[in-house]
Every structure is written in structure tokens, then in C-alpha cells.
Fold this protein.
Amino acid sequence: MTGRTHDLAAITALLVVVCIFAPVYNLNLATLLVALLANQIGGIIPDIDQPTAPLWRNLPIGRTVGRVFDKSVGGHRFITHSLLGIALFGFLFWALLNFLHPVMMSVDVMIVWWAFMIGILSHLVMDSFTKEGVPWLLPLPIKLGLPPVKALRITTGKAVETLLIFPGLVIVSGLLIAAHYNYLLQLLHHV
Ligand SMILES: [Zn+2]
């Protein structure tokens, strides 16, 4: 999947969770902003195993660092695209949040952490729809996909993604916002 599909998927997944499964109350502005940022970072972070990832592209010597990093994590769609990788990212991000907590006392780190994890999980689910599949169960070297039959899955950046998946995510987000408009409005009132 492309970066912009991942960005949109991360925010859509966040909307699904806060609108349907785990409504949030007592949200302040600092938490909201940091959580949105964490969600977007989570949505693209598994792709740091690609030298062409936005993170590396935007740093001065990023491509070189990216290439070295790519090799050290086993190449594209390896450890960063597995449950093991999710656990590692979750642990490191939790440590980072606790380290930063003294300078951002008003931020609810638990909400921010969940927003990040939802972003990462959305990334792996979205990549599972592509032909390449995702090695969810590493160190078991099998790539899984949705649907399991490879021929039915999509190719990154091709018509199905741009004409179906991306607009589909826009529609799902729009419907969620419309259906839960009052709740979301209330949430922002408390910010
Ligand atoms: Zn990916």
C-alpha cells in the first residue's frame, strides 16, 4: 500500500475504535494532538524497512541510513511487519512516552499509546490485502494475506488501491463521522 493509503487507514481505524469499540471521554487538546500524530506515525512506521520510506527520504543522508537499516531488519516486509515487530514497537514507544512524560504532563500517555498501536495494526492489516502478504507470525517464515488466495489480492499503487481502497476508506470515515457526529462534537467540546 502507498503512504497516503496507510495514513488514511490509520485515521479510519482510530475512528472505528473511538466511535464503536472504546468511546473516549475527558480528552484534552494536548492529548488529542499528540494522539493524532502518534496514530499517523504508527500508520507508516512499519515501512521504515524500505530505503524509500518517507522518513528516510526526508532526512539529509536518509537514503543511505535507510539502506543500512533495511538490511539490518531483514529487508522489506520482515520483522517490522510482524506481531513480534508490533510488540517491539509498542514496547519502545511506551518507553519513549514515559521518558517524555515529565515534559508533557497533561498528555494522557495511555490514549497516545493506543492511537499509535492502532496505526501500526492498521498498516499490517492493509498490507495483508496486497499480493506480497505479511509475515505476521515471524519467526515462522510464512507470509499471510487477505483473502488467503494470492491471485485475489491487490498490487500496491495500482487501480484497485487508488480507485477502490482509498475512496472506500474515505467513505467509511465519512459514514463514521456522520453516524457519530454528536459524540465527536461532544468530544471536541471537552478539548
Ligand atoms: Zn508496509
